[in-house]
Every structure is written in structure tokens, then in C-alpha cells.
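Design review, sub-item: ligand-bound model
Attendees: FS, YL, KQ
YL presented the inputs for the heme C complex:
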Amino acid sequence: MIELLLGLLQQSNQPSQPTWHDDIYPIMLTHCSECHDGKGAGPFELLTYESVANRATFIEALIEKKLMPPWLPSKEGAPLQGERCMSDEQIALFKQWVKGGKLKGEGAQIVVCPVEMETPVMTKRTESDYAWIIPAESGIRWHEGVLDKRTFVLPIENETLLKVNRIQYSTTAPQAVQMVGFVFDGSGQGKRVDAWDREPGYEMMGDIGWIPSGSHGKIGPGAGGVFVPAGFYLEIPANADLVAETHYRPRGKQEQLSSTVQLWETTDESARQLLPLITMIRRIVLEPEATNVIEGESIQIPYAVDLVGVTPRAGSECESMRLAATLPDGKEMVLIDIPRWDPHYGETVFFDKPIRLPADSIISSQWIYNNSESNPRNPFVPAKKVDLARRTGIANFILHSAAVDAQQETAIIEWNQGLLRKRQRATNKSN
Ligand code: HEC
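KQ shared the predicted structure:
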């Protein structure tokens, strides 16, 4: 497969004032074009002088507040792959460009050089043979803070177990799709629920029994897929279905949502399986106007694992969240810190390097919920009492982890499931 990479030849003598051609266009290309190329998830294209200059003040405000490009984790956690944030220098440069009169400058030369990609082994291309019509307007539940969602069940029809390292996703309505969470379902549960609903897909969340939606990755707008880091894979049981929970955003007109999913099998014989370990809060009770710091329970992992990535989940009343580890030697580390949560962008993130957690490391988590009117994302004015429970976690972190010793894989899965059952029993008693 050939993919085009845009290279840019800079002018040799930099003018004192930043210009579109020399300074701003390269930033747009690397930080915005992924979604704002006119075909992607962003509402408009941001690759021409006019399109950026005309909304420069608006863009300036968004990039200063770090609302665009969308990227939730802060630098306090461990370094992550594919961080989209603009640097402080780039933000300053943009501001200076606006202040200096949005100079256009001389046209820089754009060189398009074809780059050979490694040849992927495509094992299955599953295309939904139906389309879901996204309504022009949001349902009433949208305004109640529940994202509009639809879960689709795509049969993979694999006779044997598969080891995949890429799930690529494309849709006919990129601007109307906010977020997609994937689960490989070997239980048939997704298919059964789908059968009850007469239309394509079903309206509930894509949680399958104890397996939360996003267990095998969650993508945000424009992300295009789950790209598992080298050396690891996701396991698909034989005869599985891919359950894809899709959160959509009505755009004032009807759109047809039809998605294509491609799976890629790993060729690395020594790759290790990513197990979705889950730490969560099962129930949340919030009085109106309350701000609660909710500590997730501490869990001690009795086996050594490599933590490869994390998927966060929480409702829209949640303001911030944090995941940390205490190693057996007492060393504490922040794994993920999300200072400003937005459920629309809660995608799976992978660490730059896997984090080795020795046996008996303790995982702790914290969510801050703000059920007051001062929280701009609180759907209720005046604030209402919140009392929500979900057995896969009303708020959770999925820790995409690999056993250090492959022999312990089964034991780790059983340990985590035992924990989930114990937690459920405990909550049942206290209810
Ligand atoms: C990963 C995808 C993605 C990237 C990268 C991205 N955007 Fe966006 N952008 C979106 C989406 C999706 C929206 C629609 C609003 C929403 O859902 O949050 C949006 C909306 C916007 C808006 C309109 C906001 C509004 O409230 O109407 C502006 C302006 C914008 N983006 C600027 C930028 C700039 C500038 C960059 C690069 C520095 C950028 N975006 C990078 C996805 C992206």
C-alpha cells in the first residue's frame, strides 16, 4: 500500500514576522489536517490561508485553551504515543501571526513524496451490509447528557482464533461519529441483543456481560482505528462478532451511517496478548450541587504485567480523572492524568514504552465529579440528584496489559474476573 506523505521545503531566510506559508501552514498540516482536511471528522477544512485567516481569532482561543487539537491526557502521566497537542512555542507563534496581521508570505514549495508502507496482512474486511440513518436532530436523551449511541454487531466469521494488531475503521458520516468502542465478542451476546432490535444495531451500550465497551480499544473523532504497539496483539476468539458502540452527533440533517472495519493480523510470532484488566466504580450517587472526589478501590495485581495502554470512561458530570500505580518498592507513578474530561474524546491511549508493573503493584484511581451548574457539561439546570450504576463500571479504566510470563495469562484473566464478581457481590450487599 502506498501512502502519501507531505513534505515541506522551508524557505531559507526566515522573515521576522511569522507567515502563513512558512510557519502556520506546517502547523495546520501536522496538527489539524488529520481531521480538518475537508473529508474527516472536523467540521471544515483548515489547509488554506483563507479558511484559517477567516477564523483566526476563534482558532487562537481554542488552541490557547487546549480544546483543539483534541487530546485529553496531561504531561503529568507517562509519555504517550501520538500526542496531538501543540507546543507552547507553536501556540505563541500562531498568536504572533494573528497580531502581526496574518501575513501570507511567499509560497513554500510542497513536495509530495510517496512512502512505501510495510505490507499488511489483511485477514478480514467486514462491511456492514446495512446503514443506520442518523436522525437530523438529537433525541431527548441527548439533552439529558446521555450521548446518542448505536451499537453495531459485525460478524467476523473467523473459523479460528485470530491475533490482530490493527482495527481500522471508516465511516460514511465522519463528522457525525464522535467515538467508537470495540469489543470482540465470542459469547454471542451482542448478536442476541441485536436480534431484539428490528433496526440495524441496537440502542444500548456495547457492554457484553462483564466486558465493557472499549475493552479492545476506543477511538475518537478522526482517529481511524486502534493501532496496537509492536510486540502485542488483541485476541479474537473463533466465530466472534465485532461489537462496535458508536456515539454519534446529529448535524441537523439526516445522514447515513455505514461503517467499514478492517482487521490486520500480526506476523510477529513472539507478540504478546493484550488483556483488558479493569478497575472501576460501579455506582455513583451525587447530590445536586455536590462536587465529589471519588476514589476507585486500590487493586493489587498479584502478577507482573506490562501496561501498554489505557482506555478511560466516565459520564459527562465527571471533570477530571487520574490513574496511578504504587510499585512494590514504594515508588509512585502517575500513569494517566486527565485534567479536563470530555466523554467525546475518551479514546484509548498507548504509552511510548510499555510500563513494567512488578507483581503486587497497586493500582489506584480517582475521579472528580462535579454535579453543579458551574460544570459546563452538566446536562441539568438546575442540577439533579445523580444515582447511576453499571456492572461494567459507571466510571472505569481499562488497563490494556500483557503478562510478563505468558504462562500466567489465564491466571491473570481469572484473577481480574474474580475481582469483578467480588465487587458486584459487595455492591449488591450494600445496596
Ligand atoms: C482528531 C481530530 C481533530 C483534530 C486533530 C483537530 N480537530 Fe478541530 N475539530 C474536531 C471535531 C470533531 C470538531 C467538531 C466539534 C467537536 O465535536 O468537538 C472540531 C471543531 C473545531 C473547530 C470549531 C469548534 C466549534 O466549537 O465550532 C475549530 C475552530 C477547530 N476544530 C480547529 C482546529 C485546529 C486549529 C486544529 C489543529 C491545531 C484542530 N482543530 C485539530 C476534530 C479535530
